[in-house]
Amino acid sequence: MIRYTGSLYRPPSEADSLILQATLGCSYNQCTFCGMYRDKPFRVRPLAELEAEIEWARRHLPGVRKIFLADGDALVAKASFLEALLDRLAAAFPALRRVSVYASPQSLQLRTVEEMARLRGKGLTLYYLGVESGDDATLAALRKGVDGAEMVAAAAKATAAGVKLSTMILLGAGGRARWREHARGSARVINAIQPRFLSTLVMTPVPGTPLAEEAAAGRWREPDPLETARELREFLAGLDLRGTIFRSNHASNWLALAGTLPKDRPALLALLDRVLADPAAAVFRPGFMRGL
Fold first, then answer.
1. What are the C-alpha distances in Å from 238 to residues 44, 47, 153, 254?
2. pLDDT 10s digits, 238-278
3. Which of 86, 104, 152, 207 is the most exposed place for a label (fewest CB within 10 A)?
């Protein structure tokens, strides 16, 4: 059977995917806002362990079409390990159409375009990249380990390898002081990346993280629904995309929006304008329904 170690996370769009923990934890694990993998040290799991789980899934879940490789940074594992794993997945699941993974900017900097192209040829076709912000001051405060230009360069390697990118922006990451710089800088970086998918999350304090300590000390405050809507409007207004699917369906969002950019951008902006003009008429997600 498949055995999971510690907390398990996956993107909303991987809800019906088979999840395999190719690695445990996150090799970087320094972002101030992230508490996802603080309960376990990073390590790459032995291939033999994964082979046993793949065999169990082959016998019990023969129709698998999508697989997500957890945990937070599986792309950082050696390319030879990932290639061997992908070969075994392809052999076990004839209906498999996609393998995806979280990709940190650090792992993208490590992988060569040629390695990523080979992995794409073996089925690893989608990376989830937490951009978080395009504002350098905000990225530094978040301890992302890269600035905006480095984020763009790392993402460009994946695009050159033919890999699809699903990028995430953290609303509220700039705080009250830099919300506009954060929104505009994020739009600039996303424009440079031109991802296939784009989503927003709302930065939320998680117990045990530096962000939670900042919030408890009064040095950071989570944005309220209207502040989030204002920031989201500023971000969307600055986007110049050529074909990106946009979603704000993560549970942390106050507003659930969806569209294809640039086609639906005018409608999304008009909706946000109505929300800002008449907050009482807005359909915000109730606080008890929000989460991570």
1. 39, 45, 20, 21
2. 999 999 999 998 888 888 899 999 999 999 999 999 999 99
3. 207
What is the enclosing helix (H) or strand (E) of 258?
strand 258-261
Nearest alpha carbon to residue 163 among 193, 110, 126: 126
- Is residue 50 very low, low, confident or very high in pLDDT (cuts 50, 70, 90)? very high
Per DSSP, the three-state class of 131 is strand
83 contacts: CB under 8 Å, gap ≥ 6: 118, 119, 122
Model pTM score: 0.95
Residue with the two structure tokens 């070969």: 87
DSSP calls for 172-185:
TTTTTTSHHHHHHH
Rg, Å, the chain Cα set: 19
Q: What is the mean pLDDT of the chain?
A: 94
- List the chain domain ranges: 12-289
CATH superfamily of 12-289: Aldolase class I (3.20.20.70)
Q: Please state, in angstroms and rounded to a whole number, the distance separating the CA atoms of residues 50 and 68.
A: 13
